[in-house]
Automatic annotation (TrEMBL):
InterPro entries: NAD(P)-bd_dom_sf, Sc_DH/Rdtase_CS, SDR_fam. SUPFAM superfamilies: NAD(P)-binding Rossmann-fold domains (SSF51735). NCBIfam families: PRK12384.1 (NF009050). This is Sorbitol-6-phosphate 2-dehydrogenase. GO terms for molecular function: sorbitol-6-phosphate 2-dehydrogenase activity. The lineage of its organism: Bacteria, Bacillati, Bacillota, Bacilli, Bacillales. Keywords: Oxidoreductase. The keyword Membrane does not apply. Its EC number is 1.1.1.140. It comes from the Bacteria. PANTHER family: SHORT-CHAIN DEHYDROGENASES/REDUCTASES FAMILY MEMBER, SORBITOL-6-PHOSPHATE 2-DEHYDROGENASE. Pfam families: adh_short. Belongs to the short-chain dehydrogenases/reductases (SDR) family.
Length: 261
């Protein structure tokens, strides 16, 4: 039996993969779970699956995180239906891997729109309700590529570095309202569809076969394994909790020691 918190989390980009895992784990912690995703049907399916397993309230919304009016409308509805917006987890993201000389403007703009502007828009509108409540937490799922540059990933890395600055700025804006803002910086989620989709381009830049890529990335990690969905979820749950009440504006590495600053 799940202990209800009487708190509501919005997971933006929560309809699949890591986002869906985070939504379920937060539901297990007792949050009422709202899933925002461009794939509205899948968002509703994830919410429905969580509700069928746990005694919490859930909902799924079709939301394009680059559309401010859609975000504003959905946030208003969530607050009316659930009574509060206590936690925002911004997980929406895209990655395109190409050398700078072939990196298209459209891929650059997509990276910034989804990874950075979407975070800004969702945080902006969630914070309006958190300010009224005088409490709340915002957590961005960032990347180790927001701490160190990444070869053939200029758009992704630039957008993630921007996320670190945005997190610090939001934390300063919202501290007086008892709203905390942090970023989680995962290492390589080797078994995620996003990483798997990039293997051919990574093999090309490394000059190796596709089958060799995963081991090369494992060898870069002092703890000798990739990052898992649970590794990320454990950090999110801690930084959303009262145990982290004195922590804001932080960019927390979950990289197995690969990045230490």
């Amino acid at each position: 039996m799940v202990q209800e918190l009487n708190k509501t989390v919005i997971v933006a980009g929560g309809a699949q993969n890591l986002g869906a895992h985070l939504a379920k784990r937060l539901g297990e912690e007792g949050y009422n779970v709202v899933v925002f995703d461009k794939q509205g049907d899948q968002a509703e399916a994830v919410a429905g699956e969580i509700a069928s397993q746990l005694s919490i309230k859930t909902a799924g919304y079709a939301v394009d995180v680059t559309d401010e009016s859609a975000i504003e409308t959905a946030m208003t509805d969530v607050n009316q239906r659930f009574g509060s917006i206590d936690l925002l987890v911004y997980n929406a993201g895209v990655a395109r891997s190409t050398k700078i000389t072939e990196f298209t403007l459209s891929d650059w703009e997509l990276s910034l729109d989804v990874n950075l502007t979407g975070y800004f828009l969702c945080a902006k509108h969630a914070s309006m309700y958190m300010i009224k409540q005088k409490s709340g937490s915002i957590i961005q799922i960032n990347s180790k590529s927001g701490k160190v540059g990444s070869k053939h990933n200029s758009g992704y890395s630039a957008s993630k570095f921007g996320g670190v600055g945005l997190t610090q700025s939001l934390a300063l804006d919202l501290a007086e309202h008892n709203v905390r803002v942090n970023s989680i910086m995962p290492g390589n989620l080797l078994h995620s569809p996003m990483f798997q989709s990039l293997i051919p381009s990574y093999a090309k830049k490394l000059g190796v076969e596709d089958s060799e890529v995963e081991q090369i990335y494992i060898d870069k990690v002092p703890l000798k394994r990739g990052c898992s969905y649970d590794d990320v979820a454990n950090a999110v749950i801690f930084y959303a909790s009262d145990a982290a009440s004195y922590m804001t504006g932080q960019s927390i590495n979950v990289t197995g020691g690969q990045v230490m600053h």
